[in-house]
Design goal:
By secondary structure, the chain is of the alpha+beta class. About 35% of the residues lie in helices and about 30% in strands. It has a 4-stranded mixed β-sheet with strand order 1-2-3-4, with helices on one face. Helix 2 links the parallel strand 3 and strand 4. The chain is globular.
């Protein structure tokens, strides 16, 4: 899974869609704690512009320190600043840890 995530992250950075933004969480020493990728999205059924959380990753060093919550707060701020009324994301249903994380944030 770690290899797949690294490959997807590299592909994402190498070919960013228009409007995509990447936010990085670091500690005071500059160590990478997490990354967030967001982009505009248009719902094809109702033609509504939305924010879309493409990816969020927290390093082992960032786990349990509120990094994921901070990154999702940043995604929500970004979405509001863009004028979107919705911020959407996808998660695999069998990724129980992520599902519980998003449920705690009321997703």
């Amino acid at each position: 899974m770690a290899e797949a995530q690294l490959r997807l992250a590299k592909e994402s950075v190498d070919s960013l869609s228009p409007g995509t933004e990447i936010f990085v969480a670091e500690d005071e020493t500059g160590e990478l704690l997490g990354i967030l990728e967001v982009q505009p999205h248009k719902d094809k059924l109702n033609d509504v512009e939305q924010g879309y959380t493409v990816a969020i990753t927290v390093s082992p060093q960032g786990e349990g320190k509120g990094v994921g919550k901070g990154l999702m707060t940043k995604a929500e701020e970004w979405s509001r600043q863009k004028g979107y009324r919705q911020l959407i994301l996808n998660v695999f249903s069998n990724n129980h840890r992520a599902v519980n994380f998003y449920k705690q944030l009321n997703y």
